[in-house]
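Researcher: Sequence of Positive regulator of sigma(E), RseC/MucC follows. Predict its structure.
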Amino acid sequence: MYGRVHAVRKGLAEIMVVCEDEALKGPHCGFCSASGGGAGKAKNETILARNDAGATAGTIVELSIGEHAELKAALILFVIPLSTFILALIAAAAVQLPLLQAAGTGGAVLLLTLVVLKAVLRNKTYHRVVRVVPKPLKHG
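Model: Prediction complete. Tokens:
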């Protein structure tokens, strides 16, 4: 996966992912397809990546994704909030709150969990810059 560095701050690079025709010819990361189509059709997606290669703004870089990143992201985004929601429902039922109040309590705890996760993981990323590409990529 390739991208153009927009900005660099605190060891992280803000990168706009470049989807090109080569991605459609063989095995690839699937990012272009996931973001709305193939090369030229995908909307511009900006991601945050660890800047291990020391890239500067305006350069084209090769990106990789960390090992087991999908599992870690799923755990953080789905399992933890769902678990806190279920625990809140159980706690509300244990103190014999009416069903509507129990659901409201569960929803409030779910929202609180999501807000806390967003604050704690503000600059968390599983992407990293592998290398700076020496020559410009061809755009279609």
